[in-house]
Amino acid sequence: MLHSLTPPFFSALEGSRRVLIAGMGGGFDVFCGLPLYFALRSEGLEVTLANLSFVSFSAVSFSALAPRPLAPSLIEVTADLRVQPGEYFPEYHLSRWLAAQGEPSSVYAIEKKGVQPTLAAYHALVEHLNIDTVILIDGGTDALMRGDEADLGTPHEDAVSLCAVNELEGVKRFVASLGFGIDSFHGVSHWNVLEATAELARAGAYLGSFSLTPEMRPVQLYREACLEVFSQMPRYASIVNNSILSAIDGEYGDHHASTRTQGSELWINPLMAQYWCYELGAVARRLQYREALLPTVSMSDVDRVIVAHRGQVTVRPRHTLPI
């Protein structure tokens, strides 16, 4: 094996023993971390899944088997919760699938709030699980937007997670994105994504990229998990993960795996099936409104910070890829 050509990301993980893989943008982002989850588990590491959740915690707290909060904005989701069929709850349906595979079934859900409650949730998780490494997963690439681009995509949840984990001490911290090209649906120019990657490379914080291919066992398990959970939540099947799976299969261009995307034009492409990896601290330092986000408590606070920043900054002209 050509160890000298191994992406630096894997070298950076050497010495890690207890890893937290967390979806940073909410929704189905945690699913984008499943190939890494299974790969690291196969190497003998203890790996736990978490996700910034779009589920109403107040609704969960009234269920018959309510999970015990580990912090005010953190719950442990397990397969024995009682959830109505078809209900939007990706973390629960993933937990059930993991349990059926004989995997540890806990998926930790972090309430969708501002930086301070999110930081408290991560502190509680790191202490509870004795975590030494945190990998934030972005389904897409808009987590790399620094704040003055022509369009930021959907920055709120990504920015909160990024700022919160950047405040953790004593743990390794990384960002890995999967789904290059998907955020064009939200107006992101991938010229800016590659610009950010080049800037991070100059700073020594770009840790390489690698592709997912169909014959890899972690990829096969990722596919099985997605398809099973989508079958349990047919109205909410993830556009991001369906697009990534299509790219892994070699589909290209305006290919639609879900009726949810009918009427729009997609660009499924091989780069969607590629992880792009970075040192988290350097990504956080690029975020121009990071300091203003730190005291936020609610998502309304976060929105006000982003709107104020966009009103003060000189927005750069939009560029498109010259290829």
Walkthrough of the structure:
This protein has 323 residues and is an alpha/beta fold. It has one domain. The chain has twelve helices and nine strands. The chain has helices at 8-12, 34-42, 57-61, 90-100, 115-129, 155-166, 190-202, 217-232, 239-248, 280-286, 290-293, 299-312; strands spanning 18-23, 46-53, 69-71, 74-77, 107-111, 133-139, 172-178, 206-211, 274-279. The protein has a nine-stranded mixed sheet with strand order 3-4-5-2-1-6-7-9-8, with helices on both faces. A hairpin with a 2-residue loop joins strand 3 and strand 4 (74-77). Helix 6 (155-166) crosses helix 10. The longest helix has 16 residues, at 217-232. It is globular. It starts with 7 loop residues before the first helix and ends in an 11-residue tail after the last helix. The relative contact order is 0.17.
Strand and helix layout:
Elements: H1 8-12, E1 18-23, H2 34-42, E2 46-53, H3 57-61, E3 69-71, E4 74-77, H4 90-100, E5 107-111, H5 115-129, E6 133-139, H6 155-166, E7 172-178, H7 190-202, E8 206-211, H8 217-232, H9 239-248, E9 274-279, H10 280-286, H11 290-293, H12 299-312
Parallel strand pairs: 1-2, 1-6, 2-5, 6-7
Antiparallel strand pairs: 3-4, 4-5, 7-9, 8-9
Helix pairs in contact: 2-8, 4-8, 5-6, 6-10
Features:
alpha/beta; single chain; 12 helices; nine-stranded mixed β-sheet; 323 residues; 37% helix
Summarize it.
The protein contains twelve helices and nine strands.
Please list the strands of the largest sheet in the order they lie side by side.
3-4-5-2-1-6-7-9-8
Q: Mean pLDDT, nearest integer? A: 93
Q: Helix coverage percent of residues?
A: 25-40%
Count the beta strands: 9
Segments where pLDDT lies below 50 for 5+ residues? Answer: none
Q: Could you tell me the radius of gyration in angstroms? A: 19 Å
Count of discrete alpha- or pi-helical segments spanning 4 or more residues: 12
Query: How many structural domains?
Result: 1
Helix-and-strand structural type: alpha/beta
- Beta content comes to 15-25%
Shape: globular
Q: What's the story with the biggest beta sheet?
A: 9 strands, mixed
For the record, give the distance between the C-alpha atoms at the N and C termini, rounded to a whole number.
34 Å
Give the SSE order as H and E letters.
HEHEHEEHEHEHEHEHHEHHH
